[in-house]
Batch of 4 targets.
Target 1
Amino acid sequence: MSVLEAISAAIGSFAIGSLAAYLIEQQEEEEEEQQQQQQQLEQELEMKEKQRKEEERNKKNNANEKSKWRIFKEAKAEAAAALPPEAVKMYTRQDVAEHDTIDKRVWVSYKENVYDVTDFLDNHPGGRDLLLLAAGKDIEPFWRLYQAHVNSDVAMEMLKTLKIGELDLEKEPKVEIDESDPYKNDPERHPALKRHSAKPANMEPPLSLLRREYLTPSALWFVRNHSPVPIIDGATHEITIVSGEQNHENLNLLRTKAVINLEHLKKDFEKKTVVATGQCGGNRRGGLDLIKKSSGTGWGEGAISTAKFAGASLRDVLEVHAGINLHNYERLGIKHVIFYGADDMRASIPIEKALSPFGDVLLAYEMNDCDELPRDHGYPLRVIVPGHVGVRNVKWLSKIKLCSEEADGPWNRGIAYKGFGPGYSSVEGLNIDSVPTMQEMPIQSVVAEAENVSLSLATTSEKDEKKRTVQTSAKGFAWSGGGRAIIRVDVSANNGLTWQTATLKEGSDQPLSKAWAWTFWEIDDLEVDATHLKPGDEIKVLVKATDASYNAQPENPESIWNLRGLNNNSWHAFTVKVEE
Amino acid sequence: MSVLEAISAAIGSFAIGSLAAYLIEQQEEEEEEQQQQQQQLEQELEMKEKQRKEEERNKKNNANEKSKWRIFKEAKAEAAAALPPEAVKMYTRQDVAEHDTIDKRVWVSYKENVYDVTDFLDNHPGGRDLLLLAAGKDIEPFWRLYQAHVNSDVAMEMLKTLKIGELDLEKEPKVEIDESDPYKNDPERHPALKRHSAKPANMEPPLSLLRREYLTPSALWFVRNHSPVPIIDGATHEITIVSGEQNHENLNLLRTKAVINLEHLKKDFEKKTVVATGQCGGNRRGGLDLIKKSSGTGWGEGAISTAKFAGASLRDVLEVHAGINLHNYERLGIKHVIFYGADDMRASIPIEKALSPFGDVLLAYEMNDCDELPRDHGYPLRVIVPGHVGVRNVKWLSKIKLCSEEADGPWNRGIAYKGFGPGYSSVEGLNIDSVPTMQEMPIQSVVAEAENVSLSLATTSEKDEKKRTVQTSAKGFAWSGGGRAIIRVDVSANNGLTWQTATLKEGSDQPLSKAWAWTFWEIDDLEVDATHLKPGDEIKVLVKATDASYNAQPENPESIWNLRGLNNNSWHAFTVKVEE
């Protein structure tokens, strides 16, 4: 109310004598009200300024994708309409393959057409880096990963505007199949996978794709084979369960040898599902090799993936078909379960993991809701041992043996999965039996993506005028073996001097002692000291995680270096650039 | 044979014409023989030199204890016999207490006699450091720890020769008991325990005693109390098992409320034994406090101990008295087991740990083969949760509740056992619910003893004349939560530049996934670069261990600092001196 109104109201209700006092009081109230208004205004201004900055930031990094897409499309269509029709240019796949960088222009092919997507890179709704993964390649396998493209006309319409020619399929050199090549029947692999070796296939997905979906698309799952992929007919496939010592069978541990037809396994046992992360024991070996070469594939950070598997519970199968359970295994002297693959792999796990009511070991025949396993991932049947190192998840399963000893061969009793101290750089003189083979894995975390640092967004510290800070963002995953949940992820942009705790996302709701799958994390406000940064500098975004047993990650790889290059779970660093 | 004899022999058996050739051959053989003899001689000399060095070393550190003891005793007896008998000198306990360093002379008392053991320190068979632990104190509690003293006349005879007087018990000030002191009935504690606080008792054993026996003597077990020790009559003690929500009971999770008399518990259930290590969540907090003060007792490395416990299996008790087992707990909505102590402590564990066939949770009534628990350690009944943090092993057990939620109060839902990131140095604004409380502990290792470096034993490197090295030795223990066995211990004397793998001793034969107790380790040939060392220098002996899940320890405490000072499992350092 206005002052006059207030006076009228006051006269009506107060004694005239107290008017002066009232007026003073009223004036104070008015002043207070004005102050509040002023404060509100300031807050609104501040909020607007924040919004403006946020919008600026969005403009730079997260602009409305659909509108960007539409604007770009309309501009291109206009440009195309203005030009006279030309004769179709013809290219070979080789021509396309040679255009795989921005310098050389980025081409892709799709259903016999060739497109130059260079000018579209920055407008790609999924980001330029994602589109660059397909540079020089056919784009179809990438589109298959993301239903957004396949189910929408927009992507196809967009692509049309970028067409520069067609594939001349007649000119394609015929691929000669070498009939003597044992790998000739291996399945095709997704072009996004980084190939460490093709024969046998050892391939990992790029980090940017790995962090996009909680369940890794089956086509992107890291491939770790030891031999050609076996050719098996799932309709007639059988597995046997036997008992005995190494190289002997039927030493009376079991009442009988069981032969189980896969189709019966599916029908006779409840289908159980487990969402589990698989990780190769050599994941991040490349980081150890930088110190001193270890032996094995020099994996990056991508020898890890997650899927939803379905199958029969091993525990149930052992009970029904072999009569083995928690009540009799000790008396029978059974200590290990050895799995044999059709590729001649064999690996064992302790019987306690197989029989534990909390072990969740599966004989899996489905992956990611597809009713059969991909050939690279064990079709028609593989073992899933949640929380244990990848190698225990034997693919193309043909036989299960209950045994008093662990599997012979390199993967259990041999050196392949045994970690020695950093002082041992040669197998000579090493007592291999003295160290147990890997089963459960230690805690691991990786920065999969981090935003470049924009100096234009830096602000001056309120406390210290000379200090300028800027925020950046990062995303990644963390996982620990043995079902130990991730309870915290810390991120640092100053080499570990200070840490900020990230937000745990998908996977953070898993049970604390049965968290078989990874946990995604992200941080939006990672503080970077920009005081002395200049464009072109690089900074490292570091991550370390803590699991439900409060295990931490070691700082440096030096102290955990081992000659087999196993278990590199030192703090992971992701390098980002400093921009203007 | 001599050359002449050889010639005669040759003439008798060879044609004369080949004599010259024979002689040359023979000469060569002789030379070879001489060379061999020379080599043998050199080897013998080398061996003798080695032996001499070894003896010198033994003389310094490990001399034959019995003979040392005898020689010293005889010398003292001789000296005593030569002196005229004197009047007995009288001292107070305070006089003895004031003689607690070598500078002030080291006195001890035993059964009303006072002894000056200063000159005996270096002859003490257990080492001078061990005897120094009793400096200024009554020696009886120390002798009780080691049967060698109590059962042998030698120790007593030895002590007699060191007598300097007697205790004047009449002069002792009367200890006034403050009847209002709630702690007045607390038991006496062993004088070797380091007291962080007396009311309530928070005390830890010295490392040198901790590493002497695999099973920590009960009197030396670290004491971590929250209140006065309750007074309970074991003969009539009962525990109840109930179900319900927080602060409510009997919400139909159980058929009935069970009341179990302790004597019946002992009779009705098989006595099971578990050798388990207990560790306080704040063990080594002192190391974190050096960076920045955290909250809680500033423990050294001794808030950890190991014992053999015996009692009834919680799993069996829950099945028989509450009808709860692996088949029905999920349906009944039971997620946690809360234990209540008579001291008003309450703490819970996940139901899966309680019911797991591999969990080994005990309701323990015996410790180290003594038929009752010491009062400080839970008499008459405590919980033993192997592999979990100390606080879950609730003492003076009075009630068990089966519940859908974990215990309320500071020890589960509160902040006391929750680890936040190093960036949080205040509880303000902290989302306490966001981090799970500690249950299983991470991998830990400690150097308990290490020998000083003797420059006189340094040798020159064969490869590099300028480099001198010397060996030292160290001993310690390692343990990991969750039953994860210790599979390797690495030790470094150069700040982690290189590591040597130690020998695993007692405890190394535990099952890989049920290693509830610590593993002792030792190293005799830890290499020290002595090139630039001089007497008076100090060097650090570092240790880090690896568990069966290949978890490693973090390098520095900075990255794991947390405001509650929990889980300091950074590399442990033990400082040794460099001597001439």
Note: Residues 6-17 of chain B have pLDDT under 50 and may be disordered.
Target 2
Amino acid sequence: MTSSRLWEPDPKLDLVLERVIDVPPDLVWAAWTKPEHISKWFTPAPWTVADCEIDLRPGGIFRTIMRSPEGKEFPNLGCYLEVVPNERLVWTDALLPGYRPSTNPFFTAVITMEPRGQGTRYVATAIHRDEAGRKQHEEMGFHQGWGTALDQLVALAKTM
Amino acid sequence: MTSSRLWEPDPKLDLVLERVIDVPPDLVWAAWTKPEHISKWFTPAPWTVADCEIDLRPGGIFRTIMRSPEGKEFPNLGCYLEVVPNERLVWTDALLPGYRPSTNPFFTAVITMEPRGQGTRYVATAIHRDEAGRKQHEEMGFHQGWGTALDQLVALAKTM
């Protein structure tokens, strides 16, 4: 049972960013799981991270506030689902911390990292409720936004 | 961090059934996690379980169909979040299997079992999005329904 895959991304509903990057999985993991790192790469410049709170365990909080160049703040509140160091990080905004169902679910994120030589095969998947959610995320600039943020993550990881 | 509790039940939002029962945790666990057992206790008679599907791992499916005495069927589709044998089982209908946000979230369930002598301290908590959800569940007969189902679980466990 546990060897079978739970799901395959559905192109109608999901968005996937996949790339091989030249920093190792443990640095990618660190970048994703420490607030002081998140604040340096998570939002494509000139957006910034105004705040970040992490309780790294299933059911724990993952909260960020993104700030636009005009100073407008966009809070995101979610809950970790899977925490497998250097391999797999899953969280969702369909649940608040402690697994309480949220009022405005948008997506679940699955980040996986596998060693590739000295680097990492990095896959970020955004899982939406419906096609409208996937389209909205695409129009918000998922591919460019997450891609630019990943460039920033790699640049940061090289300084660690 | 991991020693602190994630949350305390909120009486405005959550419903709790707590009881010490005279069957051990491993039998309670078996009753909760095998479809052939679920079908024998999960719905207070004269309701029945028309179908049950379980993939017992985080992200895996927990699907039941309850059938009313008049033959009307009520499907429930959810996703396991935590699977700790003989201790703790968590699932939610805010996510579909594979963690996809659902369209009609109602509650997350946390079932805990601790040994008490030859028996079990059993706590079932239903975590709702808002007060309306808690009230609706209460009016659906949460306390009586889950209590009667638990009586049935205990009776079944004694035959195992």
Note: Chain B has a mean pLDDT of 94.
Target 3
Amino acid sequence: MSVQNIHDLSERLAAFARARDWEQFHSPKNLAMALAGETGELLEHFQWLSEAQSSSLDAEKKEAVALELADILIYLLRLGERLDVDILDAAYRKMALNESRYPADKVRGDARRAEEYD
Amino acid sequence: MSVQNIHDLSERLAAFARARDWEQFHSPKNLAMALAGETGELLEHFQWLSEAQSSSLDAEKKEAVALELADILIYLLRLGERLDVDILDAAYRKMALNESRYPADKVRGDARRAEEYD
Amino acid sequence: MSVQNIHDLSERLAAFARARDWEQFHSPKNLAMALAGETGELLEHFQWLSEAQSSSLDAEKKEAVALELADILIYLLRLGERLDVDILDAAYRKMALNESRYPADKVRGDARRAEEYD
Amino acid sequence: MSVQNIHDLSERLAAFARARDWEQFHSPKNLAMALAGETGELLEHFQWLSEAQSSSLDAEKKEAVALELADILIYLLRLGERLDVDILDAAYRKMALNESRYPADKVRGDARRAEEYD
């Protein structure tokens, strides 16, 4: 088995879809909806938990959540592949942007959104 | 600069949060909400487009979408870090599960959900 | 039975929650998550359908979707009650705002978002 | 002005869309995405707040949240109109279903989902 990395995974997911003739359903629009559907399932795991409870899941719940996170990653990678976007590279670029938008000295301990700073 | 991969990115994101004393806000519950908020922004890019239009974005729109996908990956990795879940490994496990749930011969060209099959 | 209207329904929903000692879980934060979870379920019904198919659901699917819409309305009304917001009144105000932001003569046949107009 | 109620509002929203030739964009699929996009905006207001903070919004934030709830109701009613579903009636039916699924004596103070009860 090849090394696990998101480029390898993305290729396997594309092959999985092609083998099932599912690429016809995998428009970016549809994949964005599927991603959001999985995100909704993630929320359902946490909606009635306190923040503290959400940090100390039991093993069964943790595995269920792990598989939801997996589903989100899967659709995210499918979207990147269909749009020809390198999401990992975009995330590094976005992180650099966040570094400049939220200087540590200015925002320490404050979670307000960027547009709320003057 | 180190090689780009999601484990490196995840560590950088954790360091970014620690430097801003933002880990207090990063409970799994809150991060799941933030992930869903970004997913909502993604949907807004596609909601009035046809499926065909969603497959042929112009360069400006494509970059805007890329940064939304980046935000989703960022929160997804933060969630994995806070929950001590290896999302990439979970995605490989989930893909193996999908291989057995959706045999290519049975589901070719059919997008119904697994529970709708007998 | 009293006349069906959203104020009556909202009161019944509050009584339902009180009788189960569930108001402790019904913070606005949690209810927003529950609302989003139900919205995710709604998306799952439509994600692989074409727009045309989404307009001609069979009776079984239509009823399933109707109950998802019901769940969304239920959490929406719970949120309004907990926040002391009259959502119906807010919707009339928002519609008046939309009338002025999107003059029919200017936007006819064009679905771009308001901020994209000059 | 006529009495405020959701049937009147729904008719006004349909007229608003027709006057702008926007019904071409208002497939149920697209409206479900728009509803989910607005739900994402709602989450963003609450994601970094504690549950207690979410219950005591200041006036400015409360009005911003009220307008998000309004947007959600607007798209919900559009969906009901396009699908020919009476959402208010469906909500009463769903509430009756919830009454039988969650007897007060059995679930008092317990927020687990129905399928987790035996």
Note: Chain D touches chain B through 15 residues (CB under 8 Å).
Target 4
Amino acid sequence: MQAPEFITTEWFNADDTTKLADYRGKVVVVEAFQMLCPGCIQHGIPLAQKIQRMFPADQVAVLGLHCVFEHHAAMTPVSLNAFLQEFQVTFPIAVDAAGEGYVPQTMEAYQLRGTPSLLIIDQKGELQAHQLGQVSELQIGAEIATLIASDRSALGADASLEAASGCESGLCTV
Amino acid sequence: MQAPEFITTEWFNADDTTKLADYRGKVVVVEAFQMLCPGCIQHGIPLAQKIQRMFPADQVAVLGLHCVFEHHAAMTPVSLNAFLQEFQVTFPIAVDAAGEGYVPQTMEAYQLRGTPSLLIIDQKGELQAHQLGQVSELQIGAEIATLIASDRSALGADASLEAASGCESGLCTV
Amino acid sequence: MQAPEFITTEWFNADDTTKLADYRGKVVVVEAFQMLCPGCIQHGIPLAQKIQRMFPADQVAVLGLHCVFEHHAAMTPVSLNAFLQEFQVTFPIAVDAAGEGYVPQTMEAYQLRGTPSLLIIDQKGELQAHQLGQVSELQIGAEIATLIASDRSALGADASLEAASGCESGLCTV
Amino acid sequence: MQAPEFITTEWFNADDTTKLADYRGKVVVVEAFQMLCPGCIQHGIPLAQKIQRMFPADQVAVLGLHCVFEHHAAMTPVSLNAFLQEFQVTFPIAVDAAGEGYVPQTMEAYQLRGTPSLLIIDQKGELQAHQLGQVSELQIGAEIATLIASDRSALGADASLEAASGCESGLCTV
């Protein structure tokens, strides 16, 4: 499935005109969260920060999607801004636009069942995975690397040989 | 560098005639450890067990290499056997053969600097990575998946498409 | 030093007319926190919840003091209310009254240097300890128990017999 | 119940003639363990080391009791010696003497059901608590401090009765 464009009211750590489509050509990892959701604070946000540090920025983009579906009056952009500062979140954060009910519009478009949810979108904009709750770092590392490698092999034989020769994606191989 | 064959006195969880070369065609992850090394117990062995659970056995083989370079009288095969039972280690364990000095022969052949060390050997038997100490699960997951994907792309376009089509290695992709 | 009375604008999980003095006769453990302070979420609040579960409510009272000294617009009572629900905080929370500068009035009266800070007040209302940052559970358990024991020995034999009558907390004693 | 004297074949980090009775006058915390028991390595030994660091040595003695009831050939004194060095255990360790069956003699005298077990013995040699498995640091800190405080109050006659009768803080004493 093609990943739906984000419907946002504003962005933090990026220009307000930013679009998901701007990241086409990279693997995009989206951390869908609410700032007062315990699992997001304990697992989701720290994992997204690790992914941001581990993979090179020209291959993998990490984005946050603040999709508030409860306690709307408590998780405002003013509060989110303080949260991002306190937890040292530096990747771009999209603020999901309110919908007609409790669930905001982008969250509904992706049919997310809760937070934290981790989405992985490939270089062509296809949604490749989404997972609710705590996820395995081994698995996420494998999924991201598989997409990077697939994209390289699509470039043809030379890139494929290069990929086979070893040290990719900034990882410390022999 | 081609990964040197293991020089062993016996194996646990496998036949004593087992060879590293028997696993050619798979990515081989080797946890080099000593049973009384704190970092091995706290990080190395649990990581190897997670890798064993995460990746399909027909693509990734997890092996242990018990390479004792200190307290030789304490870390005998009898003690190792009890350790493996208590810590529920079920992957094959090679017992590295004593050398002329403190360091056993396989450990010397691989020039390992200590334990725990994690080795990653590709499907053709090339040593692709070795890391001493605590390692990132994101990174290890990515390294293993990169080797799996490289091997597929070497098979030609069809395999490449298959790789691109999504859900592999038991991971929960869309 | 006698623990200063709290200067509050409201309380959660307690009547708004609640006073610190209402808890005289018990050991009072005060978790001074801000809802968006990472150390408070990771260590301070969980420790206070453990103390609440471990010690009998007729001997030890656990209170929160929400003392906002930064990001005032982000950490409002509306946001705090959602935070307390999401993190399942059930002990009484006093909202510290704003002062003339950034630091609220109770925080200034206690001369706290930051959050999380843990205060221990004895049964007579004397401030016995305050500690900034992550604290040892062994040490906090010992400090609370020392105050309980000191109070009992001051009461004489009758109280002592009462105290001796039971194994209370479902713990596995001989 | 009066804590039975240890029946030992040797001690590490102490003279082989050491007796439990030598520690009379102090609170004695005994970590009963097996060197290849996962819960002992993960929780029991680290907790005993924290207690050793937290409480003053003239008031609290921390001892280990190596009570092997399985894999006897694997957990010999030679192996134990290496274990203690690798895990930097510096408190005295008694090696429990083999019994007629699998269970060693001191373990049987205390009727321990497994490892890790934590024993707390008061200044007069009375066994005040024993707990199997992972234990709460708050609770253990409280139990030790309660015994220290009781002993202090024993300087007066009424309080002395109280101290002998045991359990004060609602924590897990007899």
Note: DSSP finds five helices and six strands in chain B.
